[in-house]
Amino acid sequence: xxxxxxxxxxxxxxxxxxxxxxxxxxxxxxxxxxxxxxxxxxxxxxxxxxxxxxxxxxxxxxxxxxxxxxxxxxxxxxxxxxxxxxxxxxxxxxxxxxxxxxxxxxxxxxxxxx
Length: 114
Description:
By secondary structure, the protein is of the alpha+beta class. The protein has two helices and three strands. The longest helix has 38 residues.
């Protein structure tokens, strides 16, 4: 096992797997799944890819951890894509506004200091 490989509570892991997925914003997706990472996981970003290596002593534990990780990746990716679409929509609507589209404000405070 390499130095950067995850470790299980018992020390040596019998089962390991690496999942590599690509994303429009891999660094943000990796940061979003980071809080759910356990000691048995190591996640890294390589360009547009998120690679996660999981080491667990049992095949069942490995499968459950990978399943959880994939669900978390899917949610994080959807949130990033949704945020990007909202940012793009806001930018598009701001570009189409002109001065007549903005509300007119009037200072109605006519109270004079005496």
